[in-house]
Amino acid sequence: MGVKKSVFNKTIEKNQEELSNQVNQSNIESINQQLSAEVKQGDIFLEILSPENNSVVNNSIIKIDGKTVASAEVFVNEQETKADSSGNFSLNYSLDEGENELVVVVNDNQGNYLEKTLIITYQPQE
Length: 126
Hints:
The protein has 126 residues and is α+β, with helices and mostly antiparallel strands.
């Protein structure tokens, strides 16, 4: 009976080792995929040329100008536009009175995205 138990234990140890190797290989592949995605995201960029973050304006409509990768989709909150072949984009945006949070998101054709948040305060002239 002791010999069978010993063989059984060795079989379990071997199966655990094989499973551990498979899990480790799976983790390595997953980590490599994540690193690869991060490198790809490094190719996308977003530069807001105007307005400056934390600006106070006295006009309810502002023009948002920026630069990103060519032909990227650009969203400012729910409004959408597209960057031109040089990566330039422009969008008119209507502000509410007071503080406005604008989330600018760009998506490239490879599924990468990047976002920046601007705070613009609209104070109408009195």
